Amino acid sequence: MITRRKFLSGTAAAAGGVSLLRSVVSAPAQTIAPTGTPVPLAQPGRDYTPVITPNNVSLPWKIVDGVKVYHLVAEEVKHEFAPGLEAFCWGFNGRVHGPTIEAVEGDRVRIYVTNKLPAATSIHWHGIILPNGMDGVSGLTQTPIKPGETFKYEFTLKQHGTHMYHSHHDEMTQMALGLMGLFVIHPRNPKYRVDRDFAFMLSEWRIDTGTMRPNPNEMTDFNVFSMNARIFPGMEPMVAKLGDRVRIRFVNLSAMDHHPMHLHGHTFRVVETDGGQIPESAQQIETTVLVQVGSARAIEFIADNPGDWPVHCHMTHHTMTQMGDKFPNMIGVKSGKLDEKIRSSLLPGYMTMGGTGMADMGTMGMPVPRNSLPMMGGPGPFDYIAMGGMFTVIKIREGITSYEDPGWYKHPDGTVAGLAAAGDLQRDGVDVQTSPKPPEQHMHHGS
Ligand SMILES: [Cu+2]
């Protein structure tokens, strides 16, 4: 047992390898408001819906004298983006990106940051209103945290919303290696509760095929686009019950790219930026929300349409993986006897790829270099799903009793697109031999 006093006096020394913050403390406790008056602590589940970070977790905390105490350890982590692609990244507490920090407006938080990286670092609390000296800007507001050191940050949360934390020391290198995480602050007095509250960190990487380390020097040509540092098909799906009020928070800490995040089957309201809640009268109704670099957007909708619905970046190259930028344009090229010739004389097993697009590449099981993925895709209920990168699915179901992955959607009879029946074509007068041309447009020149 570690006593509170020991914890307080010996944190830096004791931190090595031992997680001091094992569980969420649920005993009644208080926190300190900016005015100095104690405020009751909000309980996860009772007072707010805890956030779900798919493929990641929230950082545990403990309460010490009314203060929420967290401990981040910056370290190198061997991270899997999806089965078949791993890299040595920089993250926190064994994870890439770091676990989500979750707190409630009005909480006093104390965050210890231990640096186990080979380089100095500092942590900036992005979007959070705090005293200048807690802002985490190496050189400007603090000395860098040297390897082996533990720094203490402490401030009171005066706002609620979707925020982030990230390295603010040699950012180009350290953020490219993954040193970032989500920071969600729940409102103290919410006007309403959501049933499902999901959060994603969007980021991008340059990982050359066959290598094991993201390249921080890349300026423009990124080839791995991730949600919570995972790429499709390595994504844990979101699950909602029919009728649930769903929130999805997106934070973008990519180096160079904005991401228009698109939801299928629903419209949503953009309810929040990193600056805070958008007044209801100003909320836009959308199906795609642009999440700029360094910003956050939260969307809300009622999950009123059952099925398996994609949630993905609409930049088409951001739903591809490493090999997307390595291929010549083969659309319309007929390989004919070429493959055979190459197979017999040069490369047994050779096959020209891409003559009708790229969707074949995954299914054909084309050999790929070690530690790399075919450019996209994973198995689906009907066929191979020709998407990768920033692509995930929300599964909306009627009558489910848990939020475990319910498997693929079972469509009601007659609600799946399929081969047109001859009878239908005949009834509707569709002649498949001709393409109906719209009437000629008459151009009027002058009056
Ligand atoms: Cu994108």
Describe the model:
- By secondary structure, the chain is mainly beta.
- The protein has a domain of 310 residues: Immunoglobulin-like, CATH 2.60.40.420.
- It has 5 helices and 25 strands.
- Strands 12, 13, 15, 17, 18, 19 and 21 form a 7-stranded mixed beta sheet that branches.
- Strand 3 and strand 4 form a beta hairpin.
- The N and C termini lie far apart (91 Å).
- The N terminus is likely disordered.
- The protein binds copper (II) ion.
- The site of copper (II) ion (CU) has 7 residues, from loops.
Inertia-based shape: globular
Low-pLDDT stretches are: 1-29
Distance between the termini: 91 Å
CATH architecture identity of the domain at 4-313: Sandwich
The secondary-structure element order is: HEEEEEEEEEEHEEEEEEEEEEEEHHEEEH
How much helicity do the residues have? under 10%
Sheet with most strands:
7 strands, mixed
Number of helix segments? 5
CATH superfamily of the domain at 4-313: Cupredoxins -  blue copper proteins
Classification by helices and strands: mainly beta
Number of strands: 25
List keywords for this structure.
binds copper (II) ion; 447 residues; Immunoglobulin-like; disordered N terminus; seven-stranded mixed beta sheet; mainly beta
